[in-house]
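Pair request: fold both.
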Amino acid sequence: MNINLSSGFETMKLIKNRILSHSYLYLSIFVGFFIASTVVAIAPTYNHSLKLISLNKSVEQTSDDFIDIALTVPNIPVNSADIQSSRVMLDQLIESYLSEFSSGHTRILKSPNLLVGTPKDPLAEFGTKDEGPIGWVQSMDGFESMVRVIEGRFPSDQVLLDDEDRQYIEGVLSPFQSEFFGLEVGSMATFSPSMNFDRLGVLIVGIVEPNDKKDRFWHFSADGLLEPRVFETPPEIDPDYIELSQPVSIFVNKNPFAEAFESIFPGSLGKSTSFIYLEKNSLRNVDPDSLDKLLKDLQVEISESFPSSGFLTGLKPILSSLAVKRFFTSIPMVLLISMMVMTVLFYLGMLVSFLSSAREEDFFRLSSRG
């Protein structure tokens, strides 16, 4: 087909005339494409920012204690080797998963429940029926810096021998426990798992009380540690009735604690509770999905390293609630994106239709001029 360029229908001139004659249409199509594409492009960024803002706000509104991790490990062997190995294992897990979030941790090691002999109610002879007060000894990292001595001193860091070469360790307790059980400074409490077993003496060398019960160190459990309560249901009465009993709770140094139990009560199984302190500032601008995955992976590792362990943190319900909130807040965004996609397709279809009709018109116009 021959086209006479001198007739004024050159290709560039034709394109220019076409654009100028339909400039408003092309401009509206361009603006529509730009707006729709911009909304679709920024939607993921908006959703991500919304997740960060929601997590930051939720964490700021909670107390420091609530976001901390509480790890309980039952049935931990009370001996120096297993206690140390479990401590190293926990330190490695914290370093691997929580090094950028954690500001430290505190560990409480508690003995199994034992029969207790006190000056008011001493243990009976060997071989008699197992009855009497119950109690335990326990150690806690950083305990001495968080309490003040009312009377006496803090316990020593070694296992001692009495005049009959029997091993004993030193301990402290609260004023209430001291008065309730008659355990004054200088008196001896005797612990044993049964009347048929050997006995461990704990010499009371101090009466202490917390500097601040509301301090984050205690995790609202100062009274539960120093003045615990145990609920028992006597079998001879209504099971719904609950009687409050008072167990003996004595704090000792962790080194003689493990050494004495390993020697006198070999094979004893205690309970370990660790509080892992998380800093709010370190959780700012952390992706909630990444944080949720990290906590789940940590919990799996802890379950494998410490069977039957318990893992609690306020971050888990926070992240769960955020997931529900994000679901409902994402519905309007999904609808908006869907509308924008439909708009883009509409403008694209309109542009293709217009160009097709224009191309057909130009074809017949050029053909008519030979």
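--- second member of the pair ---
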Amino acid sequence: MVLYEIRKLFQKRLTLLIFLLLFLGNGFFAYRREAPGGDYGFGAAEIRSVYAALPQDRALILPTLDAQLERLDEAVWEDSYDGQTLTKDFYTDRILLRRVRERCEIVLNYDSYLDSVEQNARVLQHSGIYKDQTSFGYRNIQKSAEHYAILRGTEPQVFYSAAMESLFNGRLSDIALVLIALLLALELIYSERKQETLSLIKPTVKGRTALICAKLQCASLVLFLCLLIIYGSNYMIGVFRFGAVPLDAPLQSVYGFEGSALKISVGGYLLRFLAMKYLWLLGNCIFMMLVFVACRNLMQMMAVLCICFIPSILCLQSTGLVAYLNPIGAGDTEALFRTYRNLNVFGFDIAREMVRRAAKRGS
């Protein structure tokens, strides 16, 4: 029955054309995306060349960059430079090297970052801000130092992590996936209601439950494949443009993830990222299917979806709670792993349990 639903879904050439256009459009915008860390005057090629020239010894990376920056600073004062430039001029070289140094410094001074986390936790505990020591905020501060202590001994690697960073700027990819979910709901539910075949299928031998399960399984399978195609192509385009990322490196090696409290590898993070993204996408699709089942005509269906999704599009740049209280913004699943989150559901500390299990696997 599931295969029948899949065959029926892809029998229409228009459906196949829309899928193809969404895949090609996503790939085009992923290829045209700006290089993370780039600026006017330099891009991924120049940044990769700086990383390739860095010494293998971690202790020599920052001194090497500082020596090059010192030479460029002197050239700025003298308004002349006799060395070979990586960009169009030595002024742009200074900006390039400072960007790379900033990225490397975060990774190389990771132990100092952990020290600052513990120090801030102690200061906040004794500051008197939280008078109620049983409050959520006070307990969250108490646990943060304990959880980050697990990361002692982690040694992030130095590499250009743009292939991973480009995944997190994929708002258009998320919109394409939402459109695919909408298309599936239209084809699996609305098209049969419009043709008045849904009521004929319900009283089958296998019953209504089997029909609903078949449609859900069809949607789940197609969404999973589309997710792999879209984000898989994004990652491969990133690797082609910016270079490969070691999947066995600690997650804290990726720029912007030094605050993560999970002791996992980059590959382990990718699996969690895709799993959370899939749950978000599947939830959107099921919601749309329920809307199409509950509403009587297309105008009602579109009105309900507009009420739900137009505020999402208008709030795409919002931060905090507003960013997660909309169907599209909730797709920013990478934010769940960027920093420490002490989530407590019915007394079960989700973040602490995740950290404990990750540490147990890493030890």
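Observation on the second member. Strands lie at 344-345, 348-349.
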